[in-house]
Fold:
Amino acid sequence: MTSPVAAAATRPAVRAAVVPPPRPRGRWKASAGWAAVLAVTALTLAPGIGVEVDLGALARNWQNGADKVVALLQPDWAFFPRTVEPLLETLQMAVIATAVAGVLSLPLSLWAARTTNPHTALRGTVRAVLDVVRAVPDLLYAAVLVAMVGVGALPGILALVLFDVGIVVKLVSEQLEAADTGALEAARAAGGTQLQVNRSVAVPDMLPGFWTQLLYVLELNVRASSVLGLVGAGGMGLLIDAVRSFYRYDQLSLIILEILVVVLVLEAVSSAARRRLV
Amino acid sequence: MRDVVVRYPNGVTALDGVSLDLEPGEMVAVVGLSGSGKSSMIRTLNGLVPVTSGTVEVGGHDVTAARGRALRALRGEVGMIFQSFNLAGRATVLQNVLVGRVAHAPTWRTLLGAHTAEDKAVAYEALDRVGMLDRAWHRASHLSGGQQQRVAIARALAQQPRAVLADEPVASLDPPTAHGVMADLRRVNRELGITVVVNLHLLDLAREYGTRLVGLRAGQVVYDGPAADASDRVFEDIYGRSIRPDDVLGAS
Ligand SMILES: Nc1ncnc2c1ncn2[C@@H]1O[C@H](COP(=O)(O)OP(=O)(O)OP(=O)(O)O)[C@@H](O)[C@H]1O
Ligand SMILES: [Mg+2]
Structure:
């Protein structure tokens, strides 16, 4: 055992300076990001350019608002029979759209991820198209599709499919890119084509996450499809539009309640399913 | 391998003029320090890493010139085993072993998951050979490390390969398990006559299981000879430093 004193004594007086490798550039990006967020926030609140947030209106119209709240607190239960059919239609639209979106999203996700599609041009194209798809709000899809294929559930379903594919492909392809690539490499080393590699290795590993995202968009679809009817795309929305224009907030209240129950049930079911999946 | 140079896009030269002739049926242990180019060398043998210059020939076919279908057919004849097992964790053991059949199956069969009876029979036999047949329906991620590496060996065997490449196959296993896996590889080599190239950084494993020893240092072959009589001197030469306790695994 050397004593600490002896160890200190044998330590060289002047240490050879350790030269660190040059720090990679690009660290200013983080601070620039924060600055941009602050600037945008300030800009949106600036008078003249930004959104007008008139808190005074809230106080001035409080009487008006209070009436509505009272009506909303007293659902018109007798209205229930008339809501059943639109509610079922909403659910059907949501389920069909989720199923179709699922079938389309699986291959598209594999094409959109770097790890499962080394072909840069094809991947870029898929991504660019999906960015556009995602940028358009679902209500706008519905409005345009109603004009194209007529009033009813079909334009609603199509709008939901577009909306869902945009979300699912984005989330699942990101999940694919974050996953370990070892098994993919092993399948490639075994002589598989990219299709074979994806099918035999990537698909089994991505499925649980894929189902989770599908359950999530099913929930979103129930919510969204109740609004799409506002532009004539079937489901609950048509009814919502009707009761709203007759100022029947008690009936609207029942509709909101029903959507709430459906969404809560769906959420319970999907979280139970998710637990089994992982 | 003839005058093989591998330079990565970042400018690192991993292999610097390597020439080697590997004979069929050999069990070659490749040793060298971390970063000496062991992984790079093994990956050039099945075209996972492209060579910058020189040629690699496997079974009379030029790996460096092969593209597409020809390259896949070549890879189909060479099994590969990885340090981190590289199984599809959420797939079953059997599904993982069937991955070894991809080069023998048309793409549509793989896509539909419609494996032929022959493919399945080969997979079961491969699992039986490594003693994992009873786990065929388990999820791969539910197995221990040693079991996962056995499944990976079965996947390589399911290719019915002429050679097996193993990149640090036991580096993440405890000593008894490591010996078990190395013994499996030796049986593959002896009973099936399959050429085995295995990267190791533990000199006692290299000596015990290899028939031939190749030493790499800074991307160059600095030793090539029988493994059994490679003395500690030889290893000190390869490593360019004296032997340390963590260079050996210890008894099984
Ligand atoms: N994909 C890559 N891109 C760039 N450089 C790489 C890549 N792979 C390896 N290298 C570099 O090439 C050199 C040789 O690496 P290689 O992985 O072949 O060594 P190794 O002997 O297998 O080491 P280890 O025992 O740590 O696995 C190292 O300097 C490494 O940093
Ligand atoms: Mg390595």
